[in-house]
Amino acid sequence: MTVILPAVRTRINPAYEPRVLDGGGYSVCGIEIPPCSLETAILWGGRWTKDPDALEYYFWRMSDIWWNSNGQQKMAKHHWSIMIIRECCRNRYVGVGGAASGGKSYVLGGWGLFCWMCDPANTKILLTSTHLSGARDRIWGAVLQLIDDIPDPPCRIVDSVGLIAYMDHATGKSYSTYGLKLVSADKKQGKRKIGKMIGGKAPRVILIADELGEISESVQEAASSNLATNPHFQMVGLSNPASKYDPFGIFCTPKGGWDMVDALNDMRWELQIGGVYIRLDAYDSPNFHLTDEDGEGYPYLPSQRTIDEALESLGATPDEAAKSSGFLRMFRAVFNDSDGGETVYSVAELTKSEALNSRDLGAVTVLAGLDPSFSSNGDATVLKIGTLGYDAVGQHVLRFGEAVRIYEDVTDRSQPRNVQVAKKVVDECRKRGVKPENLAVDATGAGAPFCDILQMSFDSDAFLRVQFGGAASDRKIKNDSKTTGRERYRNRASELFFIGKQFLLGRQIAGVSSDMVKQMTSRLFKTHKGVKGLVLQVEPKEEYKRRMGESPDETDASFILLEGARERHFFVPQDPVKVVEKAALPDDPWAPISLRSLNGRPRRTMGDLDACAMGHEPHLV
């Protein structure tokens, strides 16, 4: 990535530059080291300094020696690269959201190499990507280019498996525990497999999660639960921002929540987990900060030409194109959950309906929905727990709870897979107080024989068997509506997925998780002409899996749970409860009430007096 600009060299700073000792050797960071090269002395400084300014200085000094000499400038020093390295020197967690082709992978590939070379025998650098093949065009390709300019690095490179293993020059032995390792972390990888790939201990571990928004959320889970326990740990997440609820959005959640920042205008904020987020907006590209003497600039970074071409390709007017989700993500680096009407649900409606919040409920019943997996390589078996009850204003509400993932024991050859899973489902239901009649199970296709096995495990056939296949039902989509499911939805699966919108209107859904948000707001739909107007059809599950690289397991289980509440507990969509301020009533329920005292107050009936006498709250009408 050579730059057509005059080289910007780092000025020598006597406070940090290694000082030659009279007897040979160097003094750096207050440490005297034996005779060695200047490069080695600078790397010693990078390893032992506690001063972030000094660490930043040592990075750019080594960049000049390795990559910005002999007429080339591979590690260009401009305000974007300076900002990235500066924050990496000061924070344990750094989020870098950038426009496409912003050079962030290249800069952070250099950061990983520098940190490893400072202490190669004790440092592990983990680099993630969606696929090993695609990584060669991204951060892994940058690392391979950059390491080629480092004289005699202590390593053995195995490009075919994405490994740069530390090699002891004295013995010739290599150690895969230390060095740089590429981790393929696409969404199809299971949590345990991801945890195994990026697990392990080392004195110094740095995780550079490239394409964090596109890879498995298990990477971040493994980082927080396992990698963070190492003596020195840093995680840098980078991506083109998309949803606030994908792995990158969750990692970059601002301190105090998303309401605390202006995602369109703020360029930096503190993270909820500690550390900072920085944004590389194409309109702030280094190419917009050049003078006439700077030549052609940075050909690989956004410029006015590339922005104009993008706006033109999006069609419509430039103003409309500039507001499109694609442009906001790929050029403005904006977290944007506006779905343009293509998806069934939007973050805006989930937020407005307060579905993302939990809610205190009374008179509760514990329910569950089960989305079974029918093969070892298929979807996860997900048991979604929920609570049905009444909130403080008397609205009938379904509050979603935890999602329990159930796996088979592959070492157990004594029982078939479905028998193992069925027994675990029964155990999990009993632990959480879910009665058989309050469990709903997907009985579509291979689900039918699984339900027979579950019946034997439960010793009960009371659970509800839900069919996703076939035509939509003849039930009304809402109590006060004449439209039936068959008239509105193309098939049963569409009805089960869309019906949640009716409950959102009445604020009858609560506790929607971040995984549910991501799956609900990325499921597409189509419209067809029906007998009585447009008919809606949700994107088939298999198409969603091919497009997104993962299965919407938790959301499917949640809508099975919702169907159980509808079928067994008369849970129907209602209008929002209008909250009316209650007037004060006499403490004594038997106190005489005059017409004057009732003026402007809710009317109390004899039934209320009986309720008060029995210790219940009076019903105000």
Broad structural category: alpha/beta
Query: How many DSSP helices?
Result: 23
| Number of extended strands | 20
Could you list the spans in which at least 5 consecutive residues all have pLDDT below 50? 588-621
The tally of structural domains comes to 4
The largest β sheet comes out as: 9 strands, mixed
Rg measurement, Å: 30 Å
Q: State the share of residues found in helices, binned by percent.
A: 25-40%
Give the name of the CATH architecture of the largest domain: 3-Layer(aba) Sandwich
Average pLDDT score = 84
Sequence-ordered SSE layout with sheet pairings:
Blueprint (H helix, E strand, L loop, with lengths): L18 E2 L5 E3 L2 E3 L4 H11 L3 H15 L12 H10 L4 E6 L5 H15 L4 E7 L2 H4 L3 H9 L7 E4 L4 E5 L6 E11 L6 H8 L5 E7 L7 H8 L6 E8 L7 H5 L16 E3 L5 E5 L23 H10 L4 H5 L2 H6 L16 H6 L9 E10 L9 E10 L5 E11 L10 H15 L7 E4 L4 H12 L5 E3 L18 H4 L3 H7 L1 H6 L3 E2 L3 H7 L4 E6 L2 E6 L2 H8 L4 H17 L25 H4 L7 H8 L8
Parallel strand pairs: 4-10, 4-12, 5-8, 5-9, 9-10, 13-16, 15-18, 16-17
Antiparallel strand pairs: 1-2, 2-3, 6-7, 7-8, 11-12, 13-14, 14-15, 19-20
Summarize the structure in short.
With 621 residues, the protein is of the alpha/beta class. Helices cover 32% and strands 19% of the residues.
